[in-house]
Specification:
With 261 residues, the chain is α/β, with parallel strands linked by helices. It is 47% helix and 16% strand. It has a seven-stranded parallel beta sheet with strand order 3-2-1-4-5-6-7, sandwiched between helices. α1 runs parallel beside α2, α3 packs parallel to α4 and α6 crosses α7.
Length: 261
């Protein structure tokens, strides 16, 4: 197993992407700390993992709160001995399905500030723990509009580009201590409820039917399909593992060839 003996924390583990990544980590042998703002969805993910023979714990943690995140990691290290993997799958309040010229400035700046604060809080807290331990992997997910031209995507691509820049800088800072930082770039999984909603909104903004919009969006990929949640989770597990020990400051492309990196 790729992650046997490793301890992972997943922020936003109750959401579709976070749950898929948590399950993939557990399948590969990691003990997974599931975190989020509400315990009920976390318990559902924990039950799915443990009933399949995996190891998982659930805790309510506000990923925007520096003290809460640091305290949780301290408890995790005290209990498990280390935190080897951190994955941020928190969903942010994006401005989407409209041109920037129609977006209020407060909505535009708020979504960027929320994303950057959450990434900074979770990644730097994990980074401090990993520095002391001499290694680890910090990962997050961005969307393909961060690297491709597409109208009416609001702040989705902007936040992704900023997240990628943040990860590069953090990789440079933490690299000498053996800590890797990687972005997973997804084209959006059709089996994720948030993606389904965004597709509907984007289709309406483009004046197209949902079916026509998804067909056109999918046709941009080399494989003529979009990545499933389990495929995103599998790539995250690989990037978090020692098999990817030479990979950092990089974007793992899980867009089915929608973008080229």
């Amino acid at each position: 197993m790729l992650l046997e003996g490793k301890n992972a924390v997943v922020y936003g583990a109750g959401g579709a992407v976070g749950a898929a990544v948590a399950r993939a980590f557990a399948i590969e042998g990691a003990r997974v700390a599931l975190t989020g703002r509400s315990l009920e969805p976390l318990d559902a993910v924990r039950e799915a993992i443990t009933s399949s023979g995996g190891q998982a714990d659930a805790a309510v943690v506000d990923a925007y709160d520096e003290g809460a995140v640091s305290d949780h990691l301290e408890r995790l290290v005290a209990d498990a001995g280390s935190v080897d993997i951190s994955f941020n799958a928190v969903s942010f309040g994006y401005v989407i399905a409209q041109p920037l010229t129609t977006a209020p400035s407060s909505d535009f700046t708020k979504s960027i500030e929320m994303a950057m604060r959450c990434h900074f809080v979770t990644a730097t807290a994990a980074g401090r723990q990993m520095e002391r331990a001499g290694g680890g992997a910090i990962l997050t997910i961005i969307a393909s509009p961060s690297r491709m031209l597409m109208p009416n995507q609001g702040t989705l691509g902007i936040v992704g580009a900023a997240t990628e820049a943040f990860c590069r800088q953090l990789a440079a800072d933490l690299g000498p201590r053996g800590v890797r930082v990687i972005c997973i770039c997804s084209a959006g999984s059709p089996d994720a409820p948030d993606v389904d909603w965004a597709m509907n909104q984007s289709a309406e903004a483009a004046g197209m039917s949902r079916e026509a919009f998804e067909e056109e969006f999918t046709s941009r990929s080399a494989l003529k399909r979009l990545p499933r949640l389990d495929e995103v989770g599998a790539v995250a597990a690989l990037m978090a593992s020692d098999r990817a020990s030479a990979v950092t400051a990089s974007v793992a492309n899980v867009t089915c060839g929608q973008i080229f990196t």
